[in-house]
């Protein structure tokens, strides 16, 4: 039973990892049995079960009723765990290196403001590496609100504002305004950070 549960969990994690890596949606419009396409997650599980008897024995209709691992909340939990693991790897790769921060703000489908943060740094081989660090919901898009969101994310991941040596604020136009930017730079002692 232990091996079967482990196989079931690993298959669900691998399906989520594949969909995330490919940038594909998990869910279909309607995932009920009457529809031909039940969404990418379920379709991938069906595909794997159809090609591997060990997987077929433990997933979907062969899984215990209380351990199907196909509910949207379970998929979201798996995705969040993978995101946390990926972010830790990125932060460890950055270490104490200097980096640039690239920010963009927009509204999501529910019209909530959100801030996207990307880190750009140079690895030990001299290659420029650009990594997505997170999306944060913000109350508004004032410079102070965006700065607080960046502070929260940096604090959460153990990054220091003193590591920033470049800044870019594409859609986060409030951060580009000279008075707000200068105030933030003064407060964070980032006078040497380049701003684009």
Please characterize this protein's 3D structure.
It is a single chain. The protein is an alpha/beta fold. Helices cover 46% and strands 19% of the residues. The chain has helices at residues 2-22, 40-51, 53-56, 72-94, 143-157, 173-176, 178-188, and strands at 99-107, 113-122, 128-137, 164-169, 194-195. Helix 1 (2-22) packs across helix 2 (40-51). It starts with a helix and ends with a strand. This is DUF4371 domain-containing protein. Pfam families: DUF4371.
CATH C-level name of the largest domain: Alpha Beta
Unreliable stretches: none
What is the count of structural domains? Answer: 2
Cα shape: elongated
Structure annotation, total helices: 7
Overall radius of gyration: 21 Å
Give the N-terminus to C-terminus distance in angstroms: 56 Å
- Helical content stands at 40-55%
* Whole-number mean pLDDT: 81
Please count the beta strands (DSSP E, at least 2 residues each).
5
CATH architecture field of the largest domain: 2-Layer Sandwich
Protein name: DUF4371 domain-containing protein
Organism: Coffea arabica (Arabian coffee)
Domain DUF4371: 2-178
What's a quick, concise take on this entry?
Helices cover 46% and strands 19% of the residues. The protein has helices spanning 2-22, 40-51, 53-56, 72-94, 143-157, 173-176, 178-188, and strands at residues 99-107, 113-122, 128-137, 164-169, 194-195. Residues 2-178 form the DUF4371 domain.
């Amino acid at each position: 039973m232990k091996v079967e549960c482990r196989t079931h969990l690993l298959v669900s994690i691998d399906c989520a990892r594949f969909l995330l890596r490919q940038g594909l949606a998990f869910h279909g419009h309607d995932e009920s049995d009457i529809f031909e396409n039940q969404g990418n997650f379920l379709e991938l599980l069906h595909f794997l079960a159809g090609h591997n008897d060990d997987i077929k024995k433990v997933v979907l209709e062969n899984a215990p009723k209380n351990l199907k691992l196909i509910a949207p909340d379970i998929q979201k939990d798996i995705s969040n765990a993978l995101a946390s693991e990926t972010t830790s790897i990125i932060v460890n790769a950055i270490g104490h290196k200097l980096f640039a921060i690239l920010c963009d703000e927009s509204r999501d489908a529910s019209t909530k403001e959100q801030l996207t943060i990307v880190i750009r740094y140079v690895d030990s081989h001299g290659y420029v590496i650009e990594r997505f660090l997170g999306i944060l919901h913000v109350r508004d898009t004032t410079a102070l609100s965006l700065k607080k969101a960046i502070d929260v994310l940096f604090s959460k991941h153990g990054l220091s504002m003193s590591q920033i040596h470049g800044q870019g604020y594409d859609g986060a136009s409030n951060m580009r305004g000279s008075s707000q930017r200068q105030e933030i730079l003064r407060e964070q002692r980032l006078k040497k950070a380049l701003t684009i």
